[in-house]
Amino acid sequence: MESIMLPSPVDVLHHTSPVQEKEALSSKNQTRLSSSISSACENSCNWGRRNRHGSWLHSLGCLGVMCLAPLLVIFYFITLNHFHGSISLSSKLLLEIGPLSFFHVYFPQVSSKATFGYTVWYLFQVALYLGLPGQISTGQLTPAGNLLKYKTNGLSAWIVTHVLFLGLSWIGILDPAILAKNWEGLVVAANVWGFILTGIAFLKACYFPTHERDRKFSGSRIYDMYMGIELNPRIGDKFDFKLFTNGRPGIVAWTLIDFSFIAYQYQLHGYITNSILISTLLHTFYVVDFFINEDWYLRTIDICHDHFGFYLAWGSSIWLPFMYTLQTQYLAQNPYSLSTPLATLITLLGLSGYVLFRCVNHQKDLARRTRGDCKIWGKPAKILTVRYKTKDGEEHQSLLLVSGFWGWARHVNYAGDLVLSAMMCAAAGGGGDLLPWTYLIFMGVLLVHRCWRDEERCREKYGPGWIDYCKTVRWVIFPGIY
Ligand code: NDP
Predict the structure, then answer these.
(1) Quick one: the chain helix, strand, coil %, rounded to 5?
(2) 361 CA to middle of ligand 1, Å?
(3) Is residue 1 part of a domain?
(4) What's the CA gap between 140 and 305, in Å, rounded?
(5) C-beta of 204 in contact with ligand 1 (< 6 A)
(6) Cα-to-centroid distance, 295 and ligand 1 (Å)
(7) Which tens digit of pLDDT belongs to each residue from 339-394?
(8) Is residue 394 part of a domain?
(9) What is the dihedral of CA 178, 182, 186, 188, to 10 degrees?
């Protein structure tokens, strides 16, 4: 893939200080639109996650999400395992007997086998993360002026894990449906771990911070626990909590879970449907793409801007592996096949969504890595130069791409993702149940909310430069619509 074959300027930035980075950025003469050069942080540096929490209602909302999101995961587990995947049936009973009785009757049981398995799995991923060789990549300048290095070896970790899983299954040592068969205990173990990790993140941020000046306290402990305090919590310089948690156990497990539910479908029904294969194929493209482009991931919101709290710690540990695989979980127990024309259409549309997703993200990454010295659709990239300050008062220069896909909309990279998500769900969603469509609904809400968060943050970071950008690129996600 082009993005990894090109000489990467992050390698050039490797071993450079923030000041050197600034100089490197300023030294390029590029085709640029005029821009306001004034800084957003004249007196203080407030960009990054909010350092205020809004009203107490806002904190209450965060508390609500921390309580309800785990219950929602469990509700889905119950719906799949006791109501054939029918949300209308499970909701009806929940309303009839009340949530307390409902969860009392159906709440998943703790399993020592699943808890042990989950612990071994987690430690195995830690060992791969620390032990496998990988390219050293550089992140982006933080508000406090830190430029961190990361070992990006996710692809090797994914390959080792999958070869081991498939190999052991092939020779009969491992039942490939093991995850599906222990799903109940895994839901509980992962949930508990997500909360423990959130607690660790909170206490570490308060008492043993890695980069003190990159912490944000909002005045609300609930908000801080939810959104995180530390930007880049680490143990030493080797173990990065955020890259590991966001990018390893959950995302590596994503495809493994799918494979396990395919095996489960076969064991239950004696055949494998094209719908479960298409859903898994689209997931696999997305996951493998993520690991091939792990260096790119270092310049996305998750790593550059979101702090490490419940949102990322619990979200990546439980929400991602359990809710993103709902389609294959559903199909394993409720198999149905797609007609050949429909299967072809869904696959092609899904792959088109993926290609759009990758091409758009690649354009932005290319523009950033070459500092605008590149061609987009055969023409020199159009760049808007913007400025911002770090906490030490240093002024830095950055660029916003405004040509190619990025001339169409400010978050056009979300459009391809939404098309791909829709097709992942369409492969499983023809049976009339709402459950397989959950991922699309979630992605719609997540990405629109992400646009709002990102726009607020970028306005604070770049000030008038961002206002100019919004005037130049008017649409948010879908040109002409939103
Ligand atoms: P981006 O990768 O688009 O990152 C946004 C940041 O990029 C901004 O904060 C800004 O950061 C910079 N930026 C914004 N506009 C421009 C521009 N025109 N030119 C150059 N830089 C710009 O967003 P996300 O991290 O949200 O998403 C990355 C991908 O991951 C998306 O395709 C999304 O669909 C996908 N995704 C998937 C999720 C899932 O759960 N499946 C969850 C979240 C995202 P700055 O200027 O400060 O560097």
Answers:
(1) 65, 5, 30
(2) 8
(3) no
(4) 9
(5) no
(6) 13
(7) 999 999 999 999 999 999 999 999 998 998 898 888 899 889 899 988 888 777 77
(8) yes
(9) 180
pLDDT at 53: 63
Q: Which residues, at least 6 apart from 120, have a Cβ–Cβ distance to it below 8 Å?
A: none
Q: Flag whether 235 is in a domain.
A: yes
The Cα-based distances of 198 to 150, 202, 232 in angstroms read 22, 6, 14
Q: Which domain holds residue 249?
A: 11-472
Q: How far, in Å, is the centroid of ligand 1 from the Cα of 267? A: 41
Which carries the bigger pLDDT value, residue 471 or residue 21?
471
| Total domains, the chain | 1
Query: Which of 32, 283, 360, 364 to mutate to test ligand 1, by most ligand atoms within 8 A of the CB atom?
Result: 364
The least confident of 21-30, 72-81, 149-158, 408-417 is: 21-30
Q: What is the pTM of this model?
A: 0.84
State which of 25, 245, 282, 301 you would mutate to test the pocket of ligand 1, scoring each by most atoms of that ligand within 8 A of its C-beta.
301
**Rounded distance between C-alpha atoms, residue 115 and residue 186, angstroms:** 7
Tens digit of each residue's pLDDT (9 = 90 or more) over 395-422: 888 899 999 999 999 999 999 999 999 9
User: Ligand 1: which atom is nearest the Cα of residue 402?
Assistant: 18
Distance 300 CA to ligand 1 centre (A): 5
Atom of ligand 1 nearest to the CA of 400: 19
Q: In this structure, what are the phi and psi dihedrals at residue 16, rounded to the nearest 5 degrees? A: -100, 155
Q: 445-462 burial, b for 16+ CB within 10 Å, e for fewer?
A: eebeeebeeeeebbbbbb
Task: Calculate the alpha carbon distances from 143 to 41, 44, 455 in Å.
Answer: 11, 11, 17
In a domain, 68, yes or no: yes
Q: Is the pLDDT of residue 48 over 70?
A: no
Is the Cβ atom of 297 under 6 angstroms away from ligand 1? no
